[in-house]
Amino acid sequence: MHNKTLAELSAGLQAKTWSSVELTQHFLDRIKRLDPNYNSFITVTEDVALAQAKAADARLAAGETHPLCGVPIAHKDIFCTQGVKTTCGSKMLDNFISPYDATVVANFQAAGAVMLGKTNMDEFAMGSSNETSFFGPVKNPWATGCVPGGSSGGSAAAVAARLAPGATATDTGGSIRQPAALCGLTGLKPTYGRVSRWGMIAFASSLDQAGPMTRTAEDAALMLNTMASFDAKDSTNIDREVPDYTASLNDSLAGLTLGVPKEYFGEGLNPGTQAAVEAAIKQYEALGATIKPISLPHSHLAVPAYYVIAPAECSANLSRFDGVRYGHRCENPADLADLYKRSRSEAFGEEVQRRILVGTYCLSAGYYDAYYRKAQKVRRLIKQDFVDAFKEVDLVIGPTSPSPAFAFGAKGADPIAMYLEDIYTIATNLAGLPGMSLPCGLVDGKPVGLQLIGNYFEEARMLNAAHQYQQVTDFHQQAPADIA
Amino acid sequence: MQWETVIGLEVHVQLATKTKIFSGASTAFGAEPNTQACAIDLAMPGTLPVVNEQAYRYATMFGLAIDAEIGKHSFFERKNYFYPDLPKGYQTTQLEAPIVGAGHVDITLADGRTKRVRIHHAHLEEDAGKSLHEGAALGLRHGMSGIDLNRAGTPLIEIVSEPDMRSAEEAVAFAKKLHSIVTSLGICDGDMSQGSMRFDVNISVRPAGEEKLGTRTETKNLNSFRFMEEAIKLEVERQIDLIEDGGQVVQETRLYNGDRKESRSMRSKEEANDYRYFPCPDLLPVVIDDDYIDAIRKSLPELPDARHARFKETYQLSDYDASQLSDDLATAQYFEATVTAAGDAKLAANWIMGELAARLNAADLALANSPVSATQLGGMIARIKDGTISSKQAKEVFEGMWAGEGDADSVIEKRGLKQVSDTGALEAMADEVIAASPKQVENYKNADADKRPKMLGYFVGQIMKASKGQANPTAINEILLKKLDALL
Question: Which residues of A touch B147 (CB under 8 A)?
Fold first, then answer.
């Protein structure tokens, strides 16, 4: 059962080939047996899952036809779940139990989906390798000596190891697409404002966006149908009708124009990755698409701009973790300043502290103009590059990540090298555009990701292009060798 | 040396919205600690703000009332600092693009002249919570502090004036004018005892004639006009003494203790925070158009200056009386309701500013809590006008109404206060008194004509005594004059 896609499992539920309880129990058993190899879950919610599965079976028996009813999924531990621990991968929230559900979680619940548990992640979503989690690193099911990517590494590993057919994730600078690439999955970051951020613990508010991680584009479309909604509780959420993303999956690609940015094929790109991506572009040509070289001239500024804006926002967003109302509080504080300093020093990891310091510095008097304001101007230029490009092409195509999964510790000593992991993904967050990654090959037995970037709210076109590619390739069907 | 005082104000006005500026929690005052703070006010992880449209509307109303430019593209920023009563670790406020731009307010000085005070801008922001440092009832042990977040997220407008005021009196006049404007607009309840308006006063002194501003201090959180006046005078004196003794004023924040009549330094400029303002990424810029502004402009209620002019015109009041009665909306409304019931503006004005004000003052009561309603007071005045009671009896009727004995007519009835104006009865009384006072009648006859009116007092007094004070004195005067003159 676990080798079936979410769409296939849904069909089986509708046809009563299996029940939700059977399905849920099957995945729970796999998690229990196999997750010690991957550490992809922080919390497994067995009781909640079985209760939800039972309720879903009742709904199915009563004629419920929602394709997600009864389907088990996992949630990144950044989404608040009422009554279930939400840690955000941090010691700070080790024991935090939210009194409410994130809108994304509530949407799945309303559809009848079953929550298997909460997946591991880089602390407060800061990282590209899942090595910053307080709950330990996640191992890549394709090569357990390697990272799964970050920050949604837990969701990626869980889906890749067939511990869940799909999982929610979030992407601030590439945190859905990069782990999807490194774990051979299909991951989609929607347009900023398409999915509600209510109840999703903020890292960098103007960049964060939730999306699905699945094995196929069809599954991603199914999950996005439910995740996307208008939510009055999030002021940055956009009131715009949610199309049925599955409706256009089978459209022909004839007439589609794909832009290939020359800046995405320069220095730093792994030759194997480059070859796989170029082969994928050829495949698209064969499917009827027109390939057009384009330029995104400000690409080289994306990483520096991001590492000003994201830390600036995080320095404020994480101020609420002060040891006063919830979360970790140090023992016997001498005074108020001591309470703040020790609570935060003890509970935040190194990377989180580094970014808070960088952000605080960038916003401080005398540096604001040189860093923050300048970065916002650069952000505008980066966005304009895309706006110009989309006048000529329908989608931008290129690599997701410069190289396949790397070994643990390989980039730990050099934060800049780690930050460059997201060099191809960050620009879309700065511009607020949708992007997705899909598997397009293997290098040294490890997956390579192909990235598609769409115009605003053109998730359907991206999903269509990804699905058509997956109809003629089998990279998305390949599985890690030893997932039993 | 002659010194000139320079004063600028920052005024926090709590907007009278039902819910908070970024959440749906109630803003009602006086609830149990932390019962009116929702997940957003507590800054629970994952929560997000949504702007309260009413707060925006109220701020716009204020901007229009002070003739200011309205920010059509305003946005919120985060002001970052740590404090236990600031749950998010930042205050959401406006810096670069506030909703209200430069405007002005006119105040009347003691000598009757009008002075214009410029407003630099006014911005919307959220209030912080409150730290509680004592209170066994709250379960706080010695040395512990508690946090009440009921107030966290309450919408405020902060009004920042230019340093245009030159004395404590001018500053108080400005503060009172703002109070009058915001209460007239209905955007603030004006209750300073509940912190609905709070004043931060920037004060500096400089040698008279000097252009350069002296070093200023900021005295924070003054919540009454009286404390404000005292605090300013004290601080001006302190600064002048300091300079005259060869010292220098240090730029700092000070706190005034109204009970002890003293101020102390709270923090100096060196300890000042770097607030690291930046646009709040959780809130989109608020874009409003001319139609929105025009609709609000059309719906603005009468403002204090217009009301003042109308009172002078309609009720023929003096400038002083008009301002006494029109500055405060509650007083103005009380006055107009009294006039309607009384049918006499001058008498209504006299009673409100005289007896009623004195009684309220003595009992430390606000007009809103007056035991005598405008309808009751007006009803009483109507009885003076139609001769049912004398002005002297009216005092007793007022007493009865104050004591809760009902409206004027029932007090008159119960206390038997009707004035006797029946000519037949009064004539009989006059005849009796004249007959019983041969000596006084003789004296009257022998007196010079111009002295006679004064001698009438004795006879009037006798009749009032006989009638237990209920005789109509005007009528008695007429009757006595007629009868006594007939004896000449």
Answer: 324-325
Let me know if A76 is a catalytic residue. yes
Q: Are A171 and A194 in contact (CB under 8 A)?
A: no
CA A93 to chain centre: 21
Q: Respond yes or no: is residue A151 known to be catalytic.
A: yes
pLDDT band at B110 (very low <50, low <70, confident <90, very high): confident
Helix (H, G, I), strand (E, B) or coil at B158: strand
Strands (DSSP E) found in B285-419: 286-287
Distance CA A396, CA A381 (A): 17
Task: Please indicate if any CB of chain A lies within 8 Å of the CB of B46.
Answer: yes
Contact flag A232-B50 (C-beta cutoff 8 Å): yes
Helix axes of B168-185 and B53-65: crossing angle, nearest 10 degrees = 130
Please give, rounded to a whole number of angstroms, the shortest distance from the CA of A463 to a CA of chain B: 28
| pLDDT for residue A268 is more than 70 | yes
Q: What is the pLDDT of residues A239-256, one digit of tens each?
A: 999 999 999 999 999 999
A320 with B89: Cβ contact below 8 A = yes
Residue A424 corresponds to which tokens in the numbers above? 């191809």
Q: What is the pLDDT of residues B295-345, one digit of tens each?
A: 999 999 999 999 999 999 999 999 889 999 998 899 999 999 999 999 999
Please check whether residue A158 is in contact with residue A180, taking contact to mean a CB–CB distance below 8 angstroms: no
Q: How far is CA B142 from CA A330, A480, B131, B135, B146, in A?
A: 20, 61, 14, 9, 11
> pTM score, two decimals?
0.90
Cα B196 versus chain centre, distance: 12
> In this predicted complex, what is the ipTM?
0.96
Known active-site residue A128? no
Closest-CA distance of chain B to residue A469, Å: 36
| Interface contact flag, A324 B147, Cβ < 8 Å | yes
Q: Do A235 and B50 make contact, defined as CB atoms within 8 angstroms?
A: yes
